[in-house]
Amino acid sequence: MKHITSRDNPRYKEMRQLASSAQARKKAGKTILDGVHLCDAYFDHISAKAIMIVSESGMRMSEVVPLVARAEDRGSEVICLPDALYAALSQVENGVPVALLIDTPVCAVPDGLHDTVVLLDGVQDPGNLGSILRSAAAAEIQHVICGQGTVAAWSPKVLRAGMGAHFALNIYEGLELSAITDKLQMPLCATSSHTETTIYAANLARPVAWLFGHEGSGVSAELMQRADLTVTIPQSPKIESMNVAASAAVCFFEQRRQLLA
Amino acid sequence: MKHITSRDNPRYKEMRQLASSAQARKKAGKTILDGVHLCDAYFDHISAKAIMIVSESGMRMSEVVPLVARAEDRGSEVICLPDALYAALSQVENGVPVALLIDTPVCAVPDGLHDTVVLLDGVQDPGNLGSILRSAAAAEIQHVICGQGTVAAWSPKVLRAGMGAHFALNIYEGLELSAITDKLQMPLCATSSHTETTIYAANLARPVAWLFGHEGSGVSAELMQRADLTVTIPQSPKIESMNVAASAAVCFFEQRRQLLA
């Protein structure tokens, strides 16, 4: 175990940068998993090395001790920080003070996609993206493709909202969605209020490429034109629309119902 | 129209307090609706008076002008603030600078509840509560009862996430849920991973009292014991659970599917 005690330590400075700056994370190809649950999920699913960061108080916490042992068993470096230095690093108030510094996993889109896939066109809110990833993984969907305008999937906020779902998925980022849609071996399906076909009437008992868009403006017109199938979640006329993560969950689990039936 | 130009104006000070403090809103029984969409939704659904607050730049914006006219037609007071004073009031970055100061609507729970109702036991995240309200209204559910530990439904953050759904619902707040469950004329239904009954197999083509809980710890043990029906959303064994707002949406729309069938 390594102890860092000075704010001026270059490794500590690097950690602070990674914790606070999306640009620094992108440049370094690294991200931070905050809290016991995400650290455990990482160890469960990923064998790559990682650096564990723990506060001095954390070292004595019953939920952290086995995690530190797990890191050491894997040959991962463990860095212990004074509480004040750890607190300046963490974005979580009153969280358990343990984190992992990891290389951001990167996936290349396979040439032919045959299984259900989710395409996200400009989803902005980290909580929404995390919730969509969690629902996709819960519905046993394996592939999520984030278009260029979508928030960074491996940011600490999205990771927290995803609650470990990231590690059950193949997440592809920063892609031009219009280039992907040509490669799909299945119908591109978008939700729309301008169609009569409900999700209950549509044939979803097959692989589908689900397309969801920006919280305010929805899917871009260009991508919408490429949709093979538009479906609607039958809603009260009093309400304009649902939250994008709620809509996605309803669609994924209607598909699951049809697949299980 | 009234112009306020000084930060020391007592009415401006009151607005700032209401904008920034949940306690001040609770004490005054008032809240703030931020942005064009919520103001419009209020005018569409609620006839009570409200005070409109607009920035000087806002007064010249094409989406604000008709809203100001609408407020004046209703005899509502309109207060114009210099941009800097308005900005200090708003929690929305780059939003359209118009807001309504309203009396927080209060509903008393009717003695016998016969229609589907949603009970929320300690939902903490404003985005989740807003999303649940939006999904409930979209599924034509009319009643949402927020237990004592649930975040304030009429807070600006929940209002923004609700996107106007508040005005299509009867929202009851600050209640002891265990006292409500005795009055219900329908099964109390909770989601659980410890049951074999899926939402698809359960009979949901009838009024149901849906029970959802805290993001981390779920529904309290005491309330869980009162559930007449526990159902599960069939999920991948790799995933522990879904986001509470996503789960609620899936349940509401499976019920809607069964009701429409």
UniProtKB/TrEMBL annotation, chains A, B:
CDD domains: SpoU-like_rRNA-MTase. Pfam families: SpoU_methylase. Residues 116-252 form the tRNA/rRNA methyltransferase SpoU type domain. This is RNA methyltransferase. Signal peptide: none annotated. GO terms for molecular function: RNA binding; RNA methyltransferase activity. The keyword Acetylation does not apply. Keywords: Methyltransferase, Transferase. It comes from Undibacterium luofuense. The keyword DNA damage does not apply. PANTHER family: RRNA METHYLTRANSFERASE 3, RRNA METHYLTRANSFERASE 3, MITOCHONDRIAL. GO terms for biological process: methylation; RNA processing. Coiled coil: none annotated. It comes from the Bacteria.
